């Protein structure tokens, strides 16, 4: 799918794993396609301590790239308690780097078969403590766990961050927005069957939303015929086009609003 327009709008992919193995063979081409379709800013969260160096390097290489350091809930089973100390040492060393935008990707995932909740919760709370201690925002994964994530944010008084790939209820959305969170929307809203996400994308205040791809994951609907192809930031413009149609707004209006949202998020930092 393409957005056929004589104008190219400016977008930020607020959640993309540009350090993923899927992009290593043609990383420059991935970035070129991204820029060509108007994506000029990227937020690249780490998922484990082994990714810290790579996300940091990507951010230093590209002017519009920011990064986050954290341990993803699906990676906690291979993590060690000492990795929290390692994360803190990275934060201390890089805390003056304006590109270090958050502790992330952290959170909880209650999908069956994933790491035990108690283990996820321990890593989540430890990382929330670090975010509070060093006055950083958070980038949060909350699959099937928005209430538990909200409880953690409230307990540690975290009022700055992004809940990516939001898929909760409207009530849960407003609770998180009230806590100071932006909500990330991406490829899921392009599926006709994603009724709850599409409705939320229509009715939630645009001022509390950000766009994302979660590249190389959460592929948009038009990738159905090429399941082997990884999602990438270049698809954000077409996702934005889908959102514009859902909300009955112009791409220019969306581009302007999301640019303002990103700046408000960064000003909070």
Attribute tags:
269 residues; eight-stranded parallel β-sheet; 8 strands; alpha/beta
Overview of this structure, please?
By secondary structure, the protein is α/β, with parallel strands linked by helices. Helices cover 40% and strands 16% of the residues. It has helices at residues 27-36, 52-61, 82-94, 117-133, 146-155, 170-178, 195-203, 236-247, 251-268; strands at 11-13, 39-45, 65-69, 100-109, 137-143, 161-164, 181-185, 209-211. It has an 8-stranded parallel β-sheet with strand order 1-2-3-4-5-6-7-8, sandwiched between helices. Helix 1 (27-36) links the parallel strand 1 (11-13) and strand 2 (39-45). The N and C termini lie far apart (35 Å). The model is unreliable at 1-6 (pLDDT under 50).
What is the tally of beta strands? 8
Give the radius of gyration: 17 Å
Instruction: Give the rounded overall mean pLDDT.
Output: 95
- Physical arrangement of strands within the biggest beta sheet: 1-2-3-4-5-6-7-8
Compact overview of the structure:
The chain is an alpha/beta fold and 269 residues long.
Secondary structure topology:
Blueprint: E1 11-13, H1 27-36, E2 39-45, H2 52-61, E3 65-69, H3 82-94, E4 100-109, H4 117-133, E5 137-143, H5 146-155, E6 161-164, H6 170-178, E7 181-185, H7 195-203, E8 209-211, H8 236-247, H9 251-268
Parallel strand pairs: 1-2, 2-3, 3-4, 4-5, 5-6, 6-7, 7-8
